[in-house]
């Protein structure tokens, strides 16, 4: 389902595209914050343009939630300045939605009213968002009884009631959500971004980062370790498809096939899993560029292999390395020569899935 078929959340007169990206939508300069006697944010400077998405990544305790709370105005910085010229509402879905004794529907209604959304519009928005996030009967359940993922959906919906424009702050928005709900959130946020909504979010989902981020700030112990831009993410190249194939033949034949196919354009990695020491069957896990996947599947079949499964789109961001400060497109490992080993071990060409 594509949000906006009713055009309700589109602000009249606002262009859908070509939103001017002002570097001064939100600016933090040298912001520091102590909590419990500890310096948890150290001289953070950050700019969010209008219609830009900034993603904060970092290990637990690196300061992401504290930074979001400062942007939301829940915490005041001890040092530095926060300047916001973004027009429109400031919306937030931060961690820890209180489990108040309301049903989801009651809670969303009250939150919308507090935010000043007119009743007719509010009713429409609650209806559309609850459908989009597949809330179903959970609308009539009390918040304390909701599952973690469902509570997260309610949290996101309450943040989105004012509609696009302004600034939205999201702490791990996809956490606990099922795949359809994750996809719904990402496509809605993509649409909101195009309509000029500035987004700041702590998120560790590589595909979210790849699709949404204009800037990525890597936090480490309260500092900005690295900052990456959209152009850095563009170096990631196109999305990746995983193919699982069954290959048959003698050791020599399989090695020949491997040598031939591993060099094909668009092949990024191949893991070889031998079924048994004596047998002539191997499972190969492939990582290939999407644009070459049909061609490579054809080559596998032509080599006498069969396709066990094809999985869609994997992000090329290596999160662990990103958190350590490496460039988003940098991958570990080099291609190694193929060899055959027992089933318990696997071979890898060109690094690994990790
Ligand atoms: N109210 C508080 N009092 C004292 N220390 C706090 C408080 N809130 C957070 N901290 C500390 O501040 C540091 C940063 O916490 P924060 O929640 O911002 O990190 P985070 O990057 O969001 O972590 P996580 O990924 O686990 O959510 C941590 O060391 C945390 O223990």
What does this entry look like structurally?
The chain has two domains: 26-234, P-loop containing nucleotide triphosphate hydrolases (Rossmann fold, 3-Layer(aba) Sandwich); 240-349, MTH889-like domain (Alpha-Beta Plaits, 2-Layer Sandwich). It has 354 residues and is an alpha/beta fold. It has a six-stranded mixed beta sheet, sandwiched between helices. Strands 13-10-12-11-14 form a five-stranded antiparallel beta sheet. Helix content is 29%, strand content 28%. The structure holds adenosine-5'-triphosphate. The site of adenosine-5'-triphosphate has 11 residues, from helix 1.
List keywords for this structure.
Rossmann fold, 354 residues, binds adenosine-5'-triphosphate, 2 domains, disordered N terminus, disordered C terminus, 10 helices, 6-stranded mixed beta sheet, alpha/beta, ATP hydrolysis activity, Alpha-Beta Plaits
Low-confidence runs:
1-22, 333-354
Quote the beta fraction: 25-35%
> How many structural domains can be distinguished in the coordinates?
2
State the major sheet: 6 strands, mixed
Element pattern in H and E: EEEHEEHHHEHEHEEHEHEEHEHE
Shape: globular
Structural class: alpha/beta
Number of strands: 14
From the alpha carbons, calculate the radius of gyration and give it in angstroms: 24 Å
């Amino acid at each position: 389902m594509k949000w906006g078929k009713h055009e309700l959340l589109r602000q009249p007169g606002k262009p859908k595209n070509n939103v001017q990206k002002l570097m001064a939508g939100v600016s933090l300069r040298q912001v520091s914050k102590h909590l419990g006697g500890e310096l948890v944010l150290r001289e953070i400077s950050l700019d969010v343009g209008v219609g830009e998405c900034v993603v904060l990544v970092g290990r637990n305790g690196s300061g992401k939630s504290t930074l979001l709370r400062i942007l939301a105005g829940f915490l005041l910085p001890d040092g530095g300045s926060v300047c916001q010229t973004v027009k429109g509402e400031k919306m937030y879905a931060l961690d820890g939605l209180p489990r108040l004794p309301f049903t989801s529907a009651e809670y969303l209604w009250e939150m919308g009213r507090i935010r000043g959304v007119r009743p007719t519009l509010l009713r429409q928005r609650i209806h559309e968002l609850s459908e989009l996030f597949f809330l179903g009967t959970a609308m009539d359940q009390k918040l304390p009884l909701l599952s973690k993922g469902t509570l997260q959906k309610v949290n996101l919906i309450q943040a989105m009631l004012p509609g696009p424009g302004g600034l939205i702050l999201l702490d791990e928005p996809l956490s606990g959500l099922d795949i359809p709900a994750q996809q719904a959130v990402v496509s809605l946020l993509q649409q909101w971004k195009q309509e000029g909504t500035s987004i700041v979010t702590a998120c560790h989902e590589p595909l979210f980062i790849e699709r949404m981020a204009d800037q990525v700030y890597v936090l480490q112990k309260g500092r900005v370790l690295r900052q990456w831009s959209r152009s850095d993410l563009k170096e990631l190249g196109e999305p990746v498809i995983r193919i699982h194939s069954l290959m048959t033949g003698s050791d020599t034949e399989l090695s020949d096939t491997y040598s031939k196919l591993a060099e094909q354009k668009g092949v990024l990695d191949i893991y070889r899993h031998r079924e048994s020491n004596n047998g002539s069957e191997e499972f190969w896990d492939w990582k290939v560029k999407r644009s070459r996947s049909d061609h490579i599947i054809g080559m596998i079949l032509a080599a006498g292999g069969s396709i066990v499964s094809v999985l869609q789109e994997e992000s090329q961001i290596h999160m662990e390395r990103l958190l350590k400060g490496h460039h988003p497109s940098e991958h570990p490992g080099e291609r190694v020569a193929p060899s055959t080993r027992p089933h318990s071990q696997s071979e890898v060409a060109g690094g690994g899935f990790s």
